[in-house]
Amino acid sequence: MSFSSPKVSQASNRPAVLTNPVRYPESASAPMRSKRAWFLLLLTLFVPGSAQIVAGNRRLGRHALRVTFTIWALAIVAVVLALVHRETLLNLFTNPWTSLLVIVAMLAVAVGWAIIFLNTLKIIKPGLLAPGMRAMVSGAVAVLMVLTCGTLGYGALMINSGRNAITSIFQAGPDMKPVDGRYNFLIMGGDAGEDRSGRRPDSIMVMSVDAKTGQAATISIPRNFQNAQFTEGSPLWGIYPEGYDCGDNCIINFLYTDVTNNHPDLYPGVQDPGAAAMMDAAGGILGLKIQGYVLVDMAGFSQLIDAMGGVTINAGGWVPLSGDDVNGTGDHLPPTGWIAPGVQKLDGYHALWYARSREWVLDYSRSQRQQCIQAAMLAQMDPSTVFTKFSAIADAGSKVMESDLPAGQLGSFVSLALKSKNFGLSRLTLGPPDFEENFSTYPDFDLIHSRVKALLNPAPAAEPPAPAPVDPAAEAPAAEDPVAEAPVEAPVATTPAAPDPEITAEYLQQLAINGDAATLTMLLANNGSCSPG
Q1: Please, what sign has the CA dihedral across residues 436, 219, 301, 279?
Q2: Average pLDDT of the chain, as a whole number
Q3: Residue 116 has what pLDDT?
Q4: Please, what CATH class does the domain formed by 182-458+526-532 belong to?
Q5: Which of 11, 52, 489, 518 has the most CB atoms lying inside 10 A of its own CB?
Q6: Four-residue CA torsion sign, 382, 385, 387, 389
Q7: Domains in the chain: boundaries
Q8: 98: buried, middle or exposed (CB in 10 Å: 19+, 13-18, 0-12)?
Q9: pLDDT tens digits for range 128-139
Q10: Does residue 453 surpass a pLDDT of 80?
Protein backbone atom coordinates (compact mmCIF):
# COMPACT_ATOMS: atom_id res chain seq x y z
CA MET A 1 0.00 0.00 0.00
CA SER A 2 2.77 2.32 0.85
CA PHE A 3 4.26 1.91 -2.64
CA SER A 4 1.02 2.15 -4.56
CA SER A 5 -0.27 5.49 -3.27
CA PRO A 6 2.31 7.63 -5.11
CA LYS A 7 1.40 5.87 -8.38
CA VAL A 8 -2.27 6.49 -7.81
CA SER A 9 -1.57 10.14 -7.03
CA GLN A 10 0.68 10.45 -10.04
CA ALA A 11 -1.80 8.73 -12.31
CA SER A 12 -4.71 10.83 -11.03
CA ASN A 13 -2.89 14.13 -11.56
CA ARG A 14 -1.59 13.41 -15.07
CA PRO A 15 -4.91 13.30 -16.91
CA ALA A 16 -5.88 16.70 -15.44
CA VAL A 17 -2.77 18.20 -16.98
CA LEU A 18 -3.19 16.57 -20.35
CA THR A 19 -6.87 17.42 -20.71
CA ASN A 20 -6.64 21.19 -19.97
CA PRO A 21 -6.08 22.62 -23.50
CA VAL A 22 -6.49 26.28 -22.38
CA ARG A 23 -3.49 26.17 -20.06
CA TYR A 24 -1.61 23.33 -21.79
CA PRO A 25 -2.21 23.52 -25.55
CA GLU A 26 0.37 20.84 -26.39
CA SER A 27 -2.21 18.11 -25.93
CA ALA A 28 -4.91 19.92 -27.97
CA SER A 29 -5.74 19.50 -31.65
CA ALA A 30 -4.81 22.12 -34.23
CA PRO A 31 -8.36 23.55 -34.48
CA MET A 32 -8.55 23.74 -30.69
CA ARG A 33 -5.24 25.64 -30.54
CA SER A 34 -6.56 28.18 -33.08
CA LYS A 35 -9.77 28.69 -31.12
CA ARG A 36 -7.73 29.06 -27.94
CA ALA A 37 -5.53 31.74 -29.56
CA TRP A 38 -8.50 33.88 -30.64
CA PHE A 39 -10.23 33.37 -27.31
CA LEU A 40 -7.20 34.64 -25.38
CA LEU A 41 -6.84 37.64 -27.70
CA LEU A 42 -10.48 38.62 -27.17
CA LEU A 43 -10.05 38.31 -23.41
CA THR A 44 -7.04 40.63 -23.54
CA LEU A 45 -8.91 43.11 -25.73
CA PHE A 46 -12.04 43.38 -23.56
CA VAL A 47 -10.82 42.33 -20.08
CA PRO A 48 -7.04 42.84 -19.93
CA GLY A 49 -5.52 40.40 -17.43
CA SER A 50 -8.18 37.70 -17.76
CA ALA A 51 -6.12 35.72 -20.30
CA GLN A 52 -3.31 35.50 -17.76
CA ILE A 53 -5.73 34.25 -15.09
CA VAL A 54 -7.01 31.36 -17.21
CA ALA A 55 -3.86 30.39 -19.10
CA GLY A 56 -0.77 32.17 -17.84
CA ASN A 57 0.83 34.07 -14.97
CA ARG A 58 -2.02 34.49 -12.49
CA ARG A 59 -0.12 37.05 -10.42
CA LEU A 60 0.34 39.28 -13.47
CA GLY A 61 -3.30 38.72 -14.36
CA ARG A 62 -4.52 39.81 -10.93
CA HIS A 63 -2.55 43.08 -11.14
CA ALA A 64 -3.88 43.74 -14.63
CA LEU A 65 -7.47 43.02 -13.59
CA ARG A 66 -7.22 45.45 -10.68
CA VAL A 67 -6.16 48.17 -13.12
CA THR A 68 -8.90 47.15 -15.56
CA PHE A 69 -11.65 47.28 -12.95
CA THR A 70 -10.33 50.63 -11.65
CA ILE A 71 -10.49 52.10 -15.16
CA TRP A 72 -14.03 50.76 -15.61
CA ALA A 73 -15.06 52.39 -12.32
CA LEU A 74 -13.51 55.72 -13.34
CA ALA A 75 -15.23 55.51 -16.73
CA ILE A 76 -18.59 54.97 -15.01
CA VAL A 77 -17.93 57.96 -12.76
CA ALA A 78 -17.05 60.07 -15.82
CA VAL A 79 -20.28 59.05 -17.58
CA VAL A 80 -22.32 59.91 -14.47
CA LEU A 81 -20.58 63.30 -14.20
CA ALA A 82 -21.21 63.97 -17.90
CA LEU A 83 -24.92 63.31 -17.33
CA VAL A 84 -25.48 65.07 -14.00
CA HIS A 85 -22.67 67.67 -13.72
CA ARG A 86 -20.85 68.09 -17.03
CA GLU A 87 -19.10 71.23 -15.80
CA THR A 88 -17.08 69.29 -13.19
CA LEU A 89 -15.90 66.79 -15.79
CA LEU A 90 -14.85 69.55 -18.18
CA ASN A 91 -12.98 71.36 -15.40
CA LEU A 92 -11.05 68.17 -14.64
CA PHE A 93 -9.89 67.86 -18.24
CA THR A 94 -9.11 71.56 -18.72
CA ASN A 95 -7.33 72.07 -15.40
CA PRO A 96 -3.56 71.97 -16.13
CA TRP A 97 -2.74 69.73 -13.14
CA THR A 98 -5.54 67.19 -13.41
CA SER A 99 -5.03 66.99 -17.17
CA LEU A 100 -1.34 66.21 -16.54
CA LEU A 101 -2.38 63.31 -14.27
CA VAL A 102 -4.75 62.06 -16.99
CA ILE A 103 -1.92 62.18 -19.55
CA VAL A 104 0.46 60.21 -17.31
CA ALA A 105 -2.27 57.65 -16.51
CA MET A 106 -3.16 57.17 -20.19
CA LEU A 107 0.48 56.62 -21.17
CA ALA A 108 0.97 54.16 -18.30
CA VAL A 109 -2.15 52.21 -19.31
CA ALA A 110 -1.00 52.17 -22.95
CA VAL A 111 2.38 50.69 -21.97
CA GLY A 112 0.77 48.21 -19.57
CA TRP A 113 -1.76 47.07 -22.17
CA ALA A 114 1.03 46.55 -24.70
CA ILE A 115 2.87 44.37 -22.17
CA ILE A 116 -0.29 42.32 -21.57
CA PHE A 117 -0.79 41.80 -25.32
CA LEU A 118 2.81 40.62 -25.75
CA ASN A 119 2.43 38.32 -22.75
CA THR A 120 -0.79 36.93 -24.25
CA LEU A 121 1.08 36.18 -27.49
CA LYS A 122 3.66 34.30 -25.44
CA ILE A 123 0.88 32.29 -23.74
CA ILE A 124 -0.66 31.47 -27.14
CA LYS A 125 2.66 29.89 -28.22
CA PRO A 126 2.52 30.71 -31.94
CA GLY A 127 4.97 27.87 -32.66
CA LEU A 128 2.18 25.39 -31.94
CA LEU A 129 -0.12 26.94 -34.55
CA ALA A 130 -0.32 26.12 -38.24
CA PRO A 131 1.86 28.46 -40.37
CA GLY A 132 -1.08 30.35 -41.86
CA MET A 133 -2.83 30.72 -38.49
CA ARG A 134 0.45 31.77 -36.89
CA ALA A 135 0.74 34.74 -39.24
CA MET A 136 -2.92 35.73 -38.75
CA VAL A 137 -2.68 35.66 -34.96
CA SER A 138 0.59 37.59 -34.91
CA GLY A 139 -0.86 40.19 -37.29
CA ALA A 140 -4.00 40.46 -35.16
CA VAL A 141 -1.89 41.15 -32.07
CA ALA A 142 -0.07 43.96 -33.91
CA VAL A 143 -3.33 45.49 -35.16
CA LEU A 144 -5.00 45.33 -31.73
CA MET A 145 -1.97 46.93 -30.07
CA VAL A 146 -2.11 49.82 -32.54
CA LEU A 147 -5.88 50.27 -32.08
CA THR A 148 -5.77 50.18 -28.27
CA CYS A 149 -2.37 51.39 -27.15
CA GLY A 150 -1.99 53.70 -30.13
CA THR A 151 -5.38 55.30 -29.49
CA LEU A 152 -4.51 55.87 -25.83
CA GLY A 153 -1.19 57.39 -26.84
CA TYR A 154 -2.84 59.68 -29.40
CA GLY A 155 -5.45 60.69 -26.85
CA ALA A 156 -2.70 61.59 -24.40
CA LEU A 157 -0.99 63.61 -27.14
CA MET A 158 -4.20 65.55 -27.86
CA ILE A 159 -4.81 66.28 -24.19
CA ASN A 160 -1.21 67.45 -23.86
CA SER A 161 -1.63 69.75 -26.88
CA GLY A 162 -4.77 71.18 -25.32
CA ARG A 163 -3.03 71.54 -21.98
CA ASN A 164 -0.14 73.45 -23.56
CA ALA A 165 -2.57 75.70 -25.42
CA ILE A 166 -4.59 76.39 -22.27
CA THR A 167 -1.52 77.31 -20.22
CA SER A 168 -0.25 79.47 -23.09
CA ILE A 169 -3.51 81.33 -23.80
CA PHE A 170 -5.22 81.57 -20.42
CA GLN A 171 -3.98 82.68 -17.01
CA ALA A 172 -3.85 81.21 -13.55
CA GLY A 173 -6.02 83.01 -11.06
CA PRO A 174 -9.26 83.01 -9.07
CA ASP A 175 -12.56 82.17 -10.69
CA MET A 176 -14.61 84.99 -12.17
CA LYS A 177 -17.99 85.73 -10.63
CA PRO A 178 -21.03 86.63 -12.76
CA VAL A 179 -22.34 90.19 -12.55
CA ASP A 180 -26.12 90.51 -12.44
CA GLY A 181 -26.28 86.85 -13.40
CA ARG A 182 -24.14 87.22 -16.55
CA TYR A 183 -20.57 86.87 -17.78
CA ASN A 184 -19.47 89.69 -20.09
CA PHE A 185 -16.38 89.11 -22.26
CA LEU A 186 -14.65 91.46 -24.67
CA ILE A 187 -13.56 89.73 -27.90
CA MET A 188 -11.13 91.61 -30.13
CA GLY A 189 -9.51 90.89 -33.45
CA GLY A 190 -6.15 92.68 -33.40
CA ASP A 191 -3.95 93.52 -36.36
CA ALA A 192 -0.33 94.68 -36.32
CA GLY A 193 0.38 95.44 -39.96
CA GLU A 194 3.64 96.79 -41.36
CA ASP A 195 2.05 100.24 -41.76
CA ARG A 196 0.96 100.41 -38.11
CA SER A 197 2.68 101.33 -34.89
CA GLY A 198 1.52 98.53 -32.62
CA ARG A 199 -1.51 96.29 -32.71
CA ARG A 200 -5.00 97.72 -33.19
CA PRO A 201 -8.23 95.84 -32.52
CA ASP A 202 -10.24 96.28 -35.72
CA SER A 203 -12.95 93.87 -34.60
CA ILE A 204 -14.50 94.75 -31.21
CA MET A 205 -17.37 92.73 -29.80
CA VAL A 206 -18.79 92.06 -26.34
CA MET A 207 -20.36 88.69 -25.67
CA SER A 208 -22.75 88.52 -22.72
CA VAL A 209 -23.74 85.05 -21.49
CA ASP A 210 -26.38 84.11 -18.92
CA ALA A 211 -24.45 82.28 -16.17
CA LYS A 212 -27.22 79.67 -15.70
CA THR A 213 -28.86 79.07 -19.06
CA GLY A 214 -25.98 79.91 -21.41
CA GLN A 215 -28.22 82.20 -23.49
CA ALA A 216 -25.84 84.60 -25.25
CA ALA A 217 -25.93 87.95 -26.98
CA THR A 218 -23.24 89.81 -28.93
CA ILE A 219 -22.81 93.58 -29.19
CA SER A 220 -20.51 94.90 -31.93
CA ILE A 221 -18.70 98.20 -31.47
CA PRO A 222 -17.44 99.77 -34.74
CA ARG A 223 -13.69 100.38 -34.90
CA ASN A 224 -14.31 104.07 -35.66
CA PHE A 225 -16.52 104.63 -32.59
CA GLN A 226 -15.74 108.05 -31.03
CA ASN A 227 -16.25 109.78 -27.67
CA ALA A 228 -15.98 106.51 -25.74
CA GLN A 229 -16.82 106.69 -22.05
CA PHE A 230 -15.14 104.52 -19.40
CA THR A 231 -16.35 102.42 -16.51
CA GLU A 232 -16.68 104.05 -13.12
CA GLY A 233 -13.33 104.28 -11.33
CA SER A 234 -11.28 103.62 -14.48
CA PRO A 235 -7.78 105.19 -14.42
CA LEU A 236 -8.47 106.43 -17.95
CA TRP A 237 -10.63 109.24 -16.56
CA GLY A 238 -7.43 110.85 -15.24
CA ILE A 239 -5.99 111.05 -18.77
CA TYR A 240 -9.24 111.70 -20.62
CA PRO A 241 -11.58 113.51 -18.19
CA GLU A 242 -14.20 114.07 -20.92
CA GLY A 243 -13.90 110.61 -22.38
CA TYR A 244 -11.91 109.54 -25.42
CA ASP A 245 -13.14 112.55 -27.40
CA CYS A 246 -10.32 114.09 -29.46
CA GLY A 247 -12.04 113.45 -32.80
CA ASP A 248 -10.68 111.23 -35.56
CA ASN A 249 -7.46 110.69 -33.61
CA CYS A 250 -9.47 109.08 -30.79
CA ILE A 251 -11.52 106.43 -32.53
CA ILE A 252 -11.78 103.47 -30.19
CA ASN A 253 -9.38 101.12 -31.97
CA PHE A 254 -6.55 103.67 -31.37
CA LEU A 255 -7.04 103.35 -27.60
CA TYR A 256 -5.30 99.98 -27.37
CA THR A 257 -2.07 101.24 -28.92
CA ASP A 258 -2.28 104.59 -27.11
CA VAL A 259 -2.39 103.00 -23.65
CA THR A 260 0.12 100.26 -24.54
CA ASN A 261 2.70 102.77 -25.79
CA ASN A 262 2.02 105.86 -23.68
CA HIS A 263 0.18 104.93 -20.48
CA PRO A 264 1.04 101.35 -19.42
CA ASP A 265 1.54 102.59 -15.85
CA LEU A 266 -2.22 103.13 -15.56
CA TYR A 267 -2.63 99.36 -15.14
CA PRO A 268 0.29 98.16 -12.97
CA GLY A 269 0.77 94.40 -12.81
CA VAL A 270 -1.58 93.79 -15.76
CA GLN A 271 -0.28 91.55 -18.54
CA ASP A 272 -1.85 93.62 -21.34
CA PRO A 273 -2.63 97.28 -20.36
CA GLY A 274 -4.09 97.96 -23.81
CA ALA A 275 -6.63 95.15 -23.42
CA ALA A 276 -7.51 96.38 -19.91
CA ALA A 277 -8.16 99.85 -21.33
CA MET A 278 -10.40 98.43 -24.04
CA MET A 279 -12.39 96.56 -21.38
CA ASP A 280 -12.92 99.82 -19.48
CA ALA A 281 -14.02 101.58 -22.67
CA ALA A 282 -16.39 98.81 -23.80
CA GLY A 283 -17.90 98.64 -20.32
CA GLY A 284 -18.45 102.41 -20.20
CA ILE A 285 -19.99 102.49 -23.67
CA LEU A 286 -22.44 99.66 -22.97
CA GLY A 287 -23.08 100.21 -19.26
CA LEU A 288 -21.78 96.72 -18.42
CA LYS A 289 -19.05 95.28 -16.22
CA ILE A 290 -16.60 93.51 -18.55
CA GLN A 291 -14.89 90.68 -16.68
CA GLY A 292 -12.41 89.30 -19.18
CA TYR A 293 -11.11 89.52 -22.72
CA VAL A 294 -10.03 87.34 -25.60
CA LEU A 295 -7.72 88.87 -28.22
CA VAL A 296 -7.26 87.11 -31.56
CA ASP A 297 -4.21 88.14 -33.56
CA MET A 298 -5.53 88.47 -37.09
CA ALA A 299 -2.01 88.11 -38.48
CA GLY A 300 -2.01 84.50 -37.26
CA PHE A 301 -5.72 83.92 -37.89
CA SER A 302 -5.02 82.25 -41.22
CA GLN A 303 -2.92 79.58 -39.45
CA LEU A 304 -5.93 78.58 -37.37
CA ILE A 305 -8.16 78.32 -40.45
CA ASP A 306 -5.56 76.21 -42.25
CA ALA A 307 -5.20 73.97 -39.19
CA MET A 308 -8.98 73.32 -39.41
CA GLY A 309 -8.66 72.43 -43.08
CA GLY A 310 -10.39 75.63 -44.26
CA VAL A 311 -13.78 77.17 -43.54
CA THR A 312 -16.92 76.93 -45.70
CA ILE A 313 -19.20 79.95 -46.12
CA ASN A 314 -22.05 81.10 -48.35
CA ALA A 315 -20.92 84.55 -49.45
CA GLY A 316 -23.58 87.01 -50.60
CA GLY A 317 -21.43 89.42 -52.59
CA TRP A 318 -18.01 90.05 -54.11
CA VAL A 319 -15.18 90.87 -51.70
CA PRO A 320 -11.89 92.43 -52.91
CA LEU A 321 -8.40 91.42 -51.83
CA SER A 322 -7.15 94.97 -51.54
CA GLY A 323 -3.95 96.10 -53.20
CA ASP A 324 -1.14 97.82 -51.32
CA ASP A 325 -1.59 101.26 -49.77
CA VAL A 326 1.72 102.49 -51.18
CA ASN A 327 1.34 106.11 -50.05
CA GLY A 328 -0.18 105.37 -46.65
CA THR A 329 -3.18 107.56 -47.51
CA GLY A 330 -5.79 104.81 -47.74
CA ASP A 331 -5.77 104.91 -51.56
CA HIS A 332 -5.05 101.31 -52.47
CA LEU A 333 -3.75 99.89 -55.70
CA PRO A 334 -6.29 97.75 -57.61
CA PRO A 335 -7.19 94.49 -55.84
CA THR A 336 -4.93 91.49 -56.23
CA GLY A 337 -7.97 89.21 -56.46
CA TRP A 338 -11.67 88.77 -55.65
CA ILE A 339 -13.69 86.37 -53.49
CA ALA A 340 -16.82 85.44 -55.43
CA PRO A 341 -20.36 85.01 -54.07
CA GLY A 342 -21.77 81.55 -53.35
CA VAL A 343 -20.81 78.52 -51.30
CA GLN A 344 -17.08 77.98 -51.20
CA LYS A 345 -14.33 76.75 -48.94
CA LEU A 346 -11.76 79.39 -47.99
CA ASP A 347 -8.21 78.67 -46.94
CA GLY A 348 -6.58 80.75 -44.24
CA TYR A 349 -5.28 83.45 -46.57
CA HIS A 350 -8.65 84.07 -48.26
CA ALA A 351 -10.63 83.72 -45.01
CA LEU A 352 -8.44 86.42 -43.46
CA TRP A 353 -9.06 88.74 -46.40
CA TYR A 354 -12.77 87.98 -46.30
CA ALA A 355 -12.84 89.01 -42.63
CA ARG A 356 -10.72 92.17 -42.95
CA SER A 357 -11.52 93.65 -46.40
CA ARG A 358 -13.30 97.02 -46.18
CA GLU A 359 -12.72 98.82 -49.50
CA TRP A 360 -15.82 100.50 -50.98
CA VAL A 361 -18.10 99.36 -48.12
CA LEU A 362 -19.04 100.44 -44.61
CA ASP A 363 -17.35 98.92 -41.57
CA TYR A 364 -20.70 97.30 -40.83
CA SER A 365 -20.28 94.99 -43.83
CA ARG A 366 -16.89 93.88 -42.58
CA SER A 367 -18.32 93.30 -39.10
CA GLN A 368 -21.01 91.08 -40.65
CA ARG A 369 -18.40 89.04 -42.49
CA GLN A 370 -16.28 88.63 -39.37
CA GLN A 371 -19.27 87.35 -37.42
CA CYS A 372 -20.04 84.96 -40.29
CA ILE A 373 -16.50 83.54 -40.27
CA GLN A 374 -16.68 83.07 -36.51
CA ALA A 375 -20.05 81.30 -36.77
CA ALA A 376 -18.77 79.08 -39.59
CA MET A 377 -15.71 78.08 -37.58
CA LEU A 378 -17.85 77.10 -34.60
CA ALA A 379 -20.30 75.19 -36.79
CA GLN A 380 -17.49 73.24 -38.44
CA MET A 381 -15.74 72.32 -35.18
CA ASP A 382 -17.32 68.86 -35.37
CA PRO A 383 -15.89 65.91 -33.38
CA SER A 384 -14.11 64.40 -36.40
CA THR A 385 -12.35 67.68 -37.20
CA VAL A 386 -11.32 68.20 -33.60
CA PHE A 387 -10.14 64.59 -33.20
CA THR A 388 -8.07 64.41 -36.39
CA LYS A 389 -6.65 67.95 -36.32
CA PHE A 390 -6.69 68.80 -32.63
CA SER A 391 -2.92 69.17 -32.19
CA ALA A 392 -2.61 71.54 -35.16
CA ILE A 393 -5.65 73.56 -34.03
CA ALA A 394 -4.38 73.82 -30.46
CA ASP A 395 -0.89 74.80 -31.64
CA ALA A 396 -2.26 77.48 -33.97
CA GLY A 397 -4.64 78.72 -31.27
CA SER A 398 -1.81 79.20 -28.79
CA LYS A 399 -0.07 81.46 -31.33
CA VAL A 400 -3.20 83.37 -32.29
CA MET A 401 -5.07 83.95 -29.01
CA GLU A 402 -4.40 85.83 -25.80
CA SER A 403 -6.78 86.03 -22.84
CA ASP A 404 -7.01 86.85 -19.16
CA LEU A 405 -9.73 84.25 -18.49
CA PRO A 406 -8.76 81.89 -15.65
CA ALA A 407 -7.61 78.49 -16.92
CA GLY A 408 -9.21 76.71 -13.97
CA GLN A 409 -12.65 78.01 -14.99
CA LEU A 410 -12.38 77.14 -18.66
CA GLY A 411 -14.49 74.00 -18.25
CA SER A 412 -17.35 76.08 -16.86
CA PHE A 413 -17.20 78.42 -19.86
CA VAL A 414 -17.13 75.46 -22.27
CA SER A 415 -20.21 74.08 -20.53
CA LEU A 416 -21.96 77.43 -20.98
CA ALA A 417 -20.98 77.46 -24.66
CA LEU A 418 -22.58 74.05 -25.11
CA LYS A 419 -25.75 75.26 -23.39
CA SER A 420 -25.87 78.36 -25.59
CA LYS A 421 -26.48 76.19 -28.66
CA ASN A 422 -30.03 75.66 -27.36
CA PHE A 423 -30.83 79.34 -27.95
CA GLY A 424 -30.66 81.77 -30.80
CA LEU A 425 -27.84 84.32 -30.65
CA SER A 426 -29.15 87.87 -30.10
CA ARG A 427 -27.18 90.65 -31.76
CA LEU A 428 -26.82 94.43 -31.58
CA THR A 429 -24.49 96.69 -33.57
CA LEU A 430 -23.72 100.29 -32.56
CA GLY A 431 -24.07 101.33 -36.17
CA PRO A 432 -26.09 100.26 -39.21
CA PRO A 433 -28.56 98.55 -39.31
CA ASP A 434 -29.44 99.11 -35.61
CA PHE A 435 -28.43 102.80 -35.57
CA GLU A 436 -27.82 105.52 -38.13
CA GLU A 437 -24.55 105.60 -40.05
CA ASN A 438 -23.14 108.60 -38.12
CA PHE A 439 -24.20 107.21 -34.73
CA SER A 440 -20.67 105.94 -34.00
CA THR A 441 -19.39 109.53 -34.34
CA TYR A 442 -22.07 111.13 -32.15
CA PRO A 443 -23.28 108.31 -29.88
CA ASP A 444 -26.19 108.63 -27.44
CA PHE A 445 -25.01 106.65 -24.41
CA ASP A 446 -28.36 106.70 -22.62
CA LEU A 447 -29.94 105.18 -25.73
CA ILE A 448 -27.17 102.57 -25.96
CA HIS A 449 -27.63 101.56 -22.32
CA SER A 450 -31.39 101.19 -22.73
CA ARG A 451 -30.97 99.11 -25.90
CA VAL A 452 -28.41 96.88 -24.21
CA LYS A 453 -30.74 96.32 -21.24
CA ALA A 454 -33.58 95.43 -23.59
CA LEU A 455 -31.31 93.02 -25.47
CA LEU A 456 -30.14 91.21 -22.35
CA ASN A 457 -33.47 91.29 -20.53
CA PRO A 458 -36.17 90.93 -23.19
CA ALA A 459 -39.75 91.36 -22.07
CA PRO A 460 -41.71 88.09 -21.95
CA ALA A 461 -43.81 87.47 -25.01
CA ALA A 462 -47.42 88.55 -24.53
CA GLU A 463 -50.03 85.83 -24.77
CA PRO A 464 -52.24 86.16 -27.88
CA PRO A 465 -55.74 87.45 -27.12
CA ALA A 466 -58.56 84.93 -26.98
CA PRO A 467 -60.51 84.74 -30.26
CA ALA A 468 -63.78 86.63 -30.30
CA PRO A 469 -66.97 84.54 -30.56
CA VAL A 470 -68.10 84.08 -34.16
CA ASP A 471 -71.69 84.53 -35.26
CA PRO A 472 -72.62 81.42 -37.31
CA ALA A 473 -74.89 83.50 -39.47
CA ALA A 474 -71.99 85.72 -40.44
CA GLU A 475 -69.59 82.90 -41.32
CA ALA A 476 -70.76 82.49 -44.91
CA PRO A 477 -70.60 85.60 -47.15
CA ALA A 478 -73.62 86.64 -49.15
CA ALA A 479 -73.72 85.03 -52.58
CA GLU A 480 -73.97 88.38 -54.34
CA ASP A 481 -70.87 89.76 -52.59
CA PRO A 482 -68.27 90.04 -55.38
CA VAL A 483 -65.44 90.62 -52.89
CA ALA A 484 -66.25 87.45 -50.96
CA GLU A 485 -66.30 85.43 -54.19
CA ALA A 486 -62.83 86.56 -55.24
CA PRO A 487 -60.16 83.91 -54.64
CA VAL A 488 -57.53 84.66 -52.03
CA GLU A 489 -54.00 84.37 -53.37
CA ALA A 490 -51.49 82.43 -51.30
CA PRO A 491 -48.44 84.40 -50.18
CA VAL A 492 -45.54 84.04 -52.56
CA ALA A 493 -42.34 82.67 -51.03
CA THR A 494 -39.34 84.82 -51.78
CA THR A 495 -35.73 83.77 -52.06
CA PRO A 496 -32.61 85.92 -52.10
CA ALA A 497 -31.89 87.23 -55.53
CA ALA A 498 -29.12 85.40 -57.35
CA PRO A 499 -25.94 87.37 -58.06
CA ASP A 500 -26.04 89.30 -61.33
CA PRO A 501 -24.50 86.93 -63.89
CA GLU A 502 -22.99 89.91 -65.75
CA ILE A 503 -20.84 90.89 -62.77
CA THR A 504 -17.49 89.13 -63.03
CA ALA A 505 -14.13 89.49 -61.35
CA GLU A 506 -12.74 90.92 -64.58
CA TYR A 507 -15.48 93.55 -64.75
CA LEU A 508 -14.97 94.59 -61.12
CA GLN A 509 -11.20 94.68 -61.60
CA GLN A 510 -11.57 97.03 -64.57
CA LEU A 511 -13.79 99.32 -62.49
CA ALA A 512 -11.08 99.40 -59.82
CA ILE A 513 -8.40 100.20 -62.42
CA ASN A 514 -10.59 103.00 -63.77
CA GLY A 515 -11.11 104.35 -60.25
CA ASP A 516 -14.91 104.06 -60.51
CA ALA A 517 -15.52 104.05 -56.74
CA ALA A 518 -19.20 105.01 -57.07
CA THR A 519 -20.09 101.95 -59.14
CA LEU A 520 -18.01 99.66 -56.96
CA THR A 521 -19.70 101.03 -53.83
CA MET A 522 -23.10 100.22 -55.36
CA LEU A 523 -22.13 96.74 -56.60
CA LEU A 524 -20.41 95.68 -53.35
CA ALA A 525 -23.09 96.98 -50.98
CA ASN A 526 -24.27 93.43 -50.29
CA ASN A 527 -20.87 91.91 -49.55
CA GLY A 528 -21.61 91.76 -45.83
CA SER A 529 -24.34 89.21 -46.53
CA CYS A 530 -23.01 85.83 -45.47
CA SER A 531 -23.95 82.60 -43.73
CA PRO A 532 -22.01 79.50 -42.65
CA GLY A 533 -21.77 77.05 -45.54
Answers
A1: positive
A2: 85
A3: 97
A4: alpha beta
A5: 52
A6: negative
A7: 25-169, 182-458+526-532
A8: middle
A9: 999 999 999 999
A10: yes
